């Protein structure tokens, strides 16, 4: 053993139990998942499972329902996380800086309440809001506008809206904190130089909170990619798979059709979609102002 | 005092070892005690419903009294159906976790048999007199493809037409209605649409959102009434192959299409709402907003006292009719059945004791007590013929009468996927996106896919 190793060993030894636990309980299940993604394991209806190589992945890309789910997942994520939660969160955060205290407290309270509600409860509330005899149509009727069955005609839009409703608070909190960090002098200097609200936003605020935008987008996206309960309660992925995002597709394959192997392979592909989004955001983060 | 980094090491190691020992010990407690029979069952997710718990506690007491020295350990699994299956299947995989007796849905029993999770009960059944009392269709429900029996059914359910006498009176239809063909059902719905325009004439479940309810309560109730109405139109038992869509299949789809195209059913968007079942039971029927409902024998459970939406008058306000065969061909009526069975896991430690427990549950008196308590339909002739059982609840003798002409689903391993394919075909014709022929071709493709091409054309 070299001298260096002899010195390092006692330092790292105490970490081994933690490392062992980490490997056992965190890395273990993940490795197991990767392993069964390459088998045809079923929960039931099968005498013995066997190794099938890339068959599950090949099958996924030949499966129209899978491709439909990938597309809907991207639509759902772009609409509700990228556009919805992110923009609305920033807008709320900047507007609230100018608002009076009571308005600020009230708005913040409402938004945060939506956030702390359990997913399933939020799902039921929004189901009641969007359904044919629901609140939204009652309001539209009152205004003499044509009513719609939103969950039936535009399900992916309805669930995206639900996700915006529920998740905006997080972005708002992140951006409130980021905006507080901007030195007042810079904003004031720009104001003296005659920059209007939009120009200040575009040339000062956005570049300065760029890192927060990156972090927020990444967290939002990862959270949105895994949304299950909300959609399940509102539409079950229907009608006809029109709101079946990848998590719902995965659930259907693994637990309704008992195809654990295939479902796990889809989960790995979902992981891939998540990392693609993350890569893009990481590039955004890397750029220094 | 400065602590040397290495001083903590022995303690940490000891802790890790202790933790590991505890963990493995958890898995080690198997059903190896030869005097204790472990019974797993599905506990209601609704805390106020204790029907099963109470019943099993009573049987446990009887069993322990009759078998001195033996003990029963009840292992409830509190979960909705789908999660209960998953949990159970995981338990059945290993001798360390497998209980001695499990409650199995007939929906999945064949799948679990194929997985090798269950033990054939034939040697026990051969020596058990009461087995002769069980009706043949019920016995078949727990039979594997190998011809062996893997479970003892503890009741079943049947399906038929519920109709509002009030709506029928307003439409000028007889309140003792008994349709003889599909056309008569549709005709009645058309009459209601014309004469009582503010109610929904007829509800038949359809599409993926309602899941198995669409397949079983609607599609199979139609399909098993086509052709000669006795042979299985979905699965060829002899050849062990699934049957592709034929005339009966297309006719059944056409029935569903007619209901929604002619607007005899609910709004399509309501029909495809996952919660439509709750609305049928909770709103539409009790409020007189629905003329006819093709639905299951268990509906009154929702209207019992203490359920939150009591409707004791239902037996006066609703009429019951058997679902007719397509053209009224023999035997004239059709029903589908499901239900649950008691089965012994292949990896059970005490299978003999487990079967003794089944016998205790299935004395005539205990079986009868159970059917009445859970509004189940009897699968034993001796109970079905007992007036005390028939009078226990309104509707019970009507639905028991259907048992004679009931069918069980071909619940083989591919069934859940086949069922989904049926729902997709139904949804296609319901929304009008597909013609009957297109939907049937789509089903054939999906069927080949789901069954590894184990199909046969008829």
Automatic annotation (TrEMBL), chain A:
A GO term from the CC aspect: plasma membrane
UniProt cross-references to CDD domains, sorted A to Z: TM_PBP2
Keyword set, alphabetical order: Cell membrane, Membrane, Transmembrane, Transmembrane helix, Transport
Entry keyword Membrane: yes
One Gene Ontology term from the biological process aspect of the record: transmembrane transport
Superkingdom of origin: Bacteria
Subcellular localization, as worded in the UniProt entry: Cell membrane
Transmembrane intervals: 12-38, 69-93, 105-130, 217-239, 259-282
Signal sequence annotation: none
Pfam families assigned: BPD_transp_1
Topology in membrane: Multi-pass membrane protein
Keyword Transferase among UniProt keywords: no
InterPro entries: MetI-like (IPR000515), MetI-like_sf (IPR035906)
Record domain ABC transmembrane type-1: where: 71-281
Family listed: Belongs to the binding-protein-dependent transport system permease family.
PANTHER family: BLR7065 PROTEIN, SPERMIDINE_PUTRESCINE TRANSPORT SYSTEM PERMEASE PROTEIN
Name used for this protein in its record: Amino acid ABC transporter permease
Protein's organism: Streptomyces fungicidicus
TrEMBL record, chain B:
Keyword Repressor belongs to the record: no
SUPFAM superfamilies named in the record: Periplasmic binding protein-like II (SSF53850)
Signal peptide: 1-20
Pfam families referenced in this protein's UniProt entry, alphabetically: SBP_bac_1
Keyword terms: Signal
Keyword presence, Signal: yes
Alphabetical list of InterPro entries matching this protein: Bact_solute-bd_prot1 (IPR050490), SBP (IPR006059)
Protein name (database record): Sugar ABC transporter substrate-binding protein
């Amino acid at each position: 053993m070299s001298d260096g190793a002899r010195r390092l060993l006692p330092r790292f030894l105490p970490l081994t139990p933690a490392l062992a636990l980490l490997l056992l309980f965190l890395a273990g299940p993940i490795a197991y998942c990767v392993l069964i993604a390459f088998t045809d394991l079923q929960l039931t209806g099968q005498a013995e499972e066997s190794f099938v190589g890339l068959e599950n992945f090949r099958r996924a890309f030949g499966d129209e329902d899978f491709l439909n789910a990938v597309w809907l997942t991207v639509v759902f994520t772009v609409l509700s996380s990228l556009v919805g939660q992110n923009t609305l969160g920033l807008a709320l955060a900047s507007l609230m800086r100018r608002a009076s205290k009571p308005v600020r407290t009230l708005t913040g309270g409402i938004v945060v309440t939506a956030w702390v509600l359990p997913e399933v409860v939020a799902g039921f509330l929004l189901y009641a809001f969007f359904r044919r005899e629901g609140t939204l149509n009652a309001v539209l009727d009152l205004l003499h506008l044509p009513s719609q069955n939103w969950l039936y005609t535009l399900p992916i839009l309805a669930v995206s809206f639900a996700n915006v409703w529920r998740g905006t608070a997080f972005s708002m909190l992140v951006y409130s904190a980021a905006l507080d960090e901007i030195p007042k002098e810079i904003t004031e200097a720009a104001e003296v130089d005659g920059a209007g609200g939009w120009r200040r936003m575009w040339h000062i605020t956005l570049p300065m909170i760029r890192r927060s935008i990156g972090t927020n987008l990444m967290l939002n996206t990862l959270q949105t990619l895994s949304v299950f309960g909300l959609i399940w309660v509102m539409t079950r992925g229907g009608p006809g798979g029109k709101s079946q995002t990848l998590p719902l597709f995965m659930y259907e394959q693994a637990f309704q059709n008992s195809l654990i192997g295939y479902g796990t392979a889809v989960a790995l592909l979902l992981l891939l979609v998540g990392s693609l989004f993350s890569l893009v955001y990481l590039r955004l983060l890397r750029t220094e102002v | 005092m400065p602590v040397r980094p290495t001083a903590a090491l022995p303690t940490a190691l000891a802790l890790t070892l202790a933790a590991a020992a505890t963990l493995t010990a958890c898995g080690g407690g198997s059903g190896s005690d030869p005097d204790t029979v472990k019974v797993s069952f599905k506990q209601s997710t609704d805390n106020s419903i204790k029907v099963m718990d109470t019943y099993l506690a009573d049987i446990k007491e009887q069993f322990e009294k009759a078998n001195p020295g033996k003990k029963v350990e009840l292992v409830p699994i509190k979960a909705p159906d789908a999660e209960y299956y998953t949990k159970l299947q995981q338990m059945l995989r290993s001798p360390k976790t497998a209980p001695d007796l499990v409650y199995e849905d007939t929906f999945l029993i064949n799948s679990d048999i194929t997985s090798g999770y269950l033990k054939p009960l034939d040697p026990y059944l051969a020596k058990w007199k009461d087995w002769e009392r069980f009706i043949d269709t019920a016995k078949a429900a727990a039979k594997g493809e190998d011809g062996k029996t893997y479970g003892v059914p503890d009741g079943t359910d049947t399906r038929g037409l519920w109709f509002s006498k009030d709506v029928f009176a307003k439409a000028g239809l007889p309140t003792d209605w008994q349709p003889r063909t599909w056309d008569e059902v549709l005709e009645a719905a058309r009459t209601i649409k014309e004469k009582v325009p503010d109610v929904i004439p007829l509800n038949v479940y359809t599409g993926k959102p309602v899941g198995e309810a669409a397949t079983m309560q609607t599609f199979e109730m139609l399909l098993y009434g086509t052709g000669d109405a006795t042979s299985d139109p979905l699965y060829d038992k002899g050849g062990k192959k699934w049957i592709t869509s034929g005339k009966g299949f297309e006719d059944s789809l056409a029935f569903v299409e007619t209901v929604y195209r002619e607007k005899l059913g609910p709004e399509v968007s309501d029909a495809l709402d996952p919660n439509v079942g709750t609305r049928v039971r909770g709103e539409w029927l009790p409020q007189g907003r629905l003329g006819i409902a093709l639905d299951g024998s268990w509906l009154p459970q929702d209207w019992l006292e203490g359920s939150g939406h009591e409707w004791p008058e239902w037996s006066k306000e609703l009429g019951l009719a058997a679902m007719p065969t397509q053209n009224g061909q023999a035997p004239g009526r059709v029903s589908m059945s499901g239900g649950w069975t008691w089965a012994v896991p292949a990896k059970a430690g005490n299978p003999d004791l487990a079967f003794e427990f089944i016998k205790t549950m299935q004395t005539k008196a205990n079986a009868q007590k159970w059917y009445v308590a859970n509004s189940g339909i009897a699968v034993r002739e001796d109970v079905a013929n007992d007036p005390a059982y028939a009078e226990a609840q309104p509707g019970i003798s009507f639905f028991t009468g259907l048992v004679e002409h009931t069918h069980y689903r071909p619940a083989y391993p591919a069934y859940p996927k086949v069922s989904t394919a049926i729902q997709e075909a139904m949804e296609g014709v319901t929304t009008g996106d597909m013609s009957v022929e297109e939907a049937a071709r789509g089903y054939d493709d999906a069927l080949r896919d789901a069954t590894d091409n184990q199909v046969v054309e008829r």
